[in-house]
Amino acid sequence: MTQEEKADIIRKVTTLLQEIPSSMDVVKKGGNELRRYEYLATHMVNKAIEKDALIVSEDGNGIAILFKTSKKDDNFWKNAWSELKLVFNVTGIKNAYKILKTQDYIKKQRPQEGEYLYCWFWGILKESRGPGTQVGVQMKNEFYRRAKLYNLPLYAETRMRKNAIVYQKFGFQLFNKWAHPSGDTMYFLRYIPEEKSEKN
User: Fold this and answer.
1) Is residue 119 part of a domain?
2) Which pTM was predicted?
């Protein structure tokens, strides 16, 4: 990946983060807010590249981060230096405290033993959304390809009801709903590949 391609992905993730309730909660309001979104997007894309978790659609307008992980792995907040930089550059102390409280519940909804795939981020730019486009289908197929390749369940959560409906249309199961402290409902979803279902 060239630096130009990476910069383009970061720019698009920055745009998409500004529509997502969870990231809107994370980013401190006020002056230089756009710069905070850019810092968060850069952090996410770098982590995705490092973990070979970045998925980009054919037209470049769909971007996802799909980690192969487990409870034992490092998570978003475990690295102290990374956490301090994010608190300083993105969240602010008050937001960081709220995030840590909600993350405890959210992480408990994922498998406590064994590996799984976790969709940390999935967004499609406005021009590539809608029933007439195939970007969502292409990306869903890549998610399922990886789930079947590794024979691992795939987990995701969202606070956007329309996204939860799309996930279910694509074959995810809704297994929990939670009254998020923000007042939103958080939807927890998973996809279990057929081979793994047969073994359980």
Assistant:
1) yes
2) 0.85
Q: In CATH, what number is assigned to the domain containing residue 166?
A: 3.40.630.30
> 140 and 168 in contact (C-beta within 8 Å)?
no
The C-alpha torsion from 136 through 67 and 20 to 61, rounded to 10°, is -40
Instruction: Print pLDDT tens along the chain (200 aa).
Output: 899 999 999 999 999 999 988 888 778 888 888 898 998 899 889 989 998 999 999 999 999 999 998 887 755 445 544 565 776 666 766 666 777 778 888 889 999 999 999 999 999 999 888 766 789 889 999 999 999 999 999 999 999 998 899 899 889 999 999 998 888 899 999 999 976 555 55
DSSP at 184: P
DSSP one-letter code for 32: T
- Per the CB < 8 A criterion, the answer to whether 143 and 119 are in contact is yes
Residue 199 lies in a domain: no
